[in-house]
Amino acid sequence: GAVVSQHPSRVICKSGTSVKIECRSLDFQATTMFWYRQFPKQSLMLMATSNEGSKATYEQGVEKDKFLINHASLTLSTLTVTSAHPEDSSFYICSARAGTGNSPLHFGNGTRLTVT
Amino acid sequence: GNSVTQMEGPVTLSEEAFLTINCTYTATGYPSLFWYVQYPGEGLQLLLKATKADDKGSNKGFEATYRKETTSFHLEKGSVQVSDSAVYFCALSDLMNDMRFGAGTRLTVKP
């Protein structure tokens, strides 16, 4: 079946540094990728939707300059948390979809970011 | 670690049929449980959730009860409609670990 690989699974960084999270579709071409943020025991919060080769569409309240999303190819999307602060500590998860219409989502295993 | 096992699809039903999509989980502690839905051409939406044992989540005619004794959170609807055709994901989250999703179940409802 379709596999989405998200890397790293865990990262600890210092306040003020930037962190890049990668989301790769291993055996299919992902025309659309989604990035979510999740707090413990809470629901997912959609951050942005990215289509290959175009700018990401951010949800209201999500800072574009803070969370940089690049969907440079049909198999890779990256989320960069710039100038990270402790309040950015969270679980980030990506999902990918091949094609359009009825295509299902496939999820990565997520990245636990801790900013110290 | 935590995990979610979801009934494999696809599931095809006639309109007004009864729906059950099974979901069982493995977790330490007391996770919150969720059902998400993905309609054709759209992103993921939260359908319903339950945060403790015996809670029943409900929305749009769908229900799921958090059963700790059977570690289950089965999704049910008494009478499905064509507009319910979508992919349904079961998920869990707790304080110590990250969210885990089931593989998703595609439901097709025929008129």
Description:
The complex is a heterodimer of chains A (116) and B (111). Chain A is mostly beta strands and 116 residues long. In chain A, strands 2, 4, 5, 6, 9, 10 and 11 form a seven-stranded mixed sheet that branches. Chain A has a four-stranded antiparallel sheet with strand order 1-3-8-7, with no helix packed on it. In chain A, a hairpin with a 2-residue loop joins strand 7 and strand 8. The radius of gyration of chain A is 13 Å and the shape is globular. Chain B is built from no helices and twelve strands. In chain B, strands 2, 5, 6, 10, 11 and 12 form a six-stranded mixed sheet that branches. Chain B has a four-stranded antiparallel sheet with strand order 3-9-8-7, with no helix packed on it. In chain B, strands 1-4 form a two-stranded antiparallel sheet. Chains A and B meet through strand 4, strand 5 and strand 9 of A and strand 5, strand 6 and strand 10 of B.
Q: Can you give keywords for this protein?
A:
heterodimer; A: 116 residues; mainly beta; 7-stranded mixed beta sheet; 4-stranded antiparallel beta sheet; globular; B: 111 residues; 0% helix
- Indicate the low-confidence ranges of chain B by residue numbers: none
Whole-number mean pLDDT of chain A: 88
Tally of individual helices of chain B? 0
Over all CA atoms, what is the radius of gyration of chain A? 13 Å
Report the principal-axis shape of chain A. Answer: globular
* Low-pLDDT regions of chain A: none
Strand content of chain A: over 45%
Explain briefly what this protein structure is.
The complex is a heterodimer of chains A (116) and B (111). With 116 residues, chain A is mainly β.
